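Box S1 | Example of a co-folding query
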Amino acid sequence: MAGDYRRFPRRPEPDFVRRVKEHVSATGEPETLADLFHDKIPKDLDFEILSKINVPQRKRPNGDFAPCPMCVPNKFLDGRLCWFPAMECVALIGHECADKVKSIAAEKAWAREQAERTQQDFLLEHLPRVPAMLTALEELRAVAVIAVDLYRHFRKKAGSVHRDLRHIASTGAQLTVAEKVWDELYGTGPTAFRGSSGQTRSVSFGVLRGTTAVKANFDPTRDIDLARSRIQPLRCEATDDAVLDFILSLDDKGREMAVGFIREAERTFEKALAAIKDFRNFFEADNLKRIDAWGAHEDAFNPVKIEDRRFLGKREVYITGSGSAALLTPDPVLWSFQVRWPS
Ligand SMILES: [Zn+2]
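Box S1 (continued) | Returned holo structure for zinc ion
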């Protein structure tokens, strides 16, 4: 029996590992694989995990567990295919077998390898799209610049309205007015003239949409620029060879960062896109109408007036309130742009 097994002076290739997996999942019997080592293995040997392999119990002739070469007669179903350099052999052992310290070291190395593989696969898929990502970020930036211009004009010229609406946005975004209720509604006589000591009731004009437009700060271009600058160095030729060479040129840290930057670039893109879409919702006709009705109420805290009109084919939004006035011309591009993250 001893000596029958296959010698592995070096760590076996992935192809061998794949064949073992196929055999075990087909038969449930690792002990019938002649290439593996089935005699006793000392518990304190160094080993490297090649794969985690589960033994399908229903495939086993007696429905039992598989024998473990490391701790006979213990048996297992959750196995680890391991290479033992000192013995130049490969064996399938139970997932809880082996010396604890050796096992922890092997599991750590395995986790590292898995992470590395996941990162490499991610980069193989995503690196060829970096040029398209940069284009998408640039296109979105151009739209963001238009939105930020409009935002700044609004905030600068109609500051008081901007602030009042920001307060509404931060307190539930409900456009409500505390309407004074005169006592005559409830009764007659002298008590009808209590004036300012009278009660109020809340009148609602609906929800304020597009609260991004009244934030204290709105500028997605900075995040977009940062994302661009971070994925710029990841631009490489889109051929398989060039991508692979690039990935192999990265060390652990560089690979991790490349994955992080690409993920972050996508998050930045989606976040900026959502912010721009929310921003433009403010300028939807029905939203402006609600704000105008809210600001026109006689008990409004500060009167606000919004005119949404067309002038020589151009849309003009004229916002006035508390001595400030902004004449805004929202660019139709904010509604017509089509930018998508490459996938
Ligand atoms: Zn065992």
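Residues 252-281 form the longest helix (30 residues). The first strand starts at residue 48 and ends at 54.
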